[in-house]
Amino acid sequence: MFERAEIYKVGRQLVEILKYLHSKSIVHRDISVPNTLYDGQKVNLVDFGLARRINNEKYRVDMDFAFLGDFLLHLYYSSFELKGFKKRPWYDELLLQPKELLLLKRLMGVDQRYTSIFEFEHDFCETVEAYKKRLC
What we know:
Blueprint: H1 4-23, E1 26-27, E2 36-38, E3 43-45, E4 52-53, H2 62-77, H3 90-93, H4 98-108, H5 117-135
Antiparallel strand pairs: 1-4, 2-3
Helix pairs in contact: 1-2, 1-5, 2-4, 4-5
């Protein structure tokens, strides 16, 4: 079960990993639970079998964003409890703050998709800061 603070900690480390990979013109294309190792402190991304060189045609950086969004949704759902019998879309089902919702929608391509890891990082940091302010 992942609480918000831990989700943000894992997300922050994945941002750093993706910044490094994208700076080396590599798109991972398979960020998922089986391809991440997490010991409670450090995240490692493994299995580069689907990784490719970024060419901005067939292999683009935004491919990693949908996978990252799906991975983060998995973490959010780890503490989710279904109330009632009706399943709803994730954006209606999860109790997300507005910044979290927009961040995930953009990662998943529901709203305008991010074009760079730096654009995502900016919004991610703002989301984390808004969460911290709510706790104070």
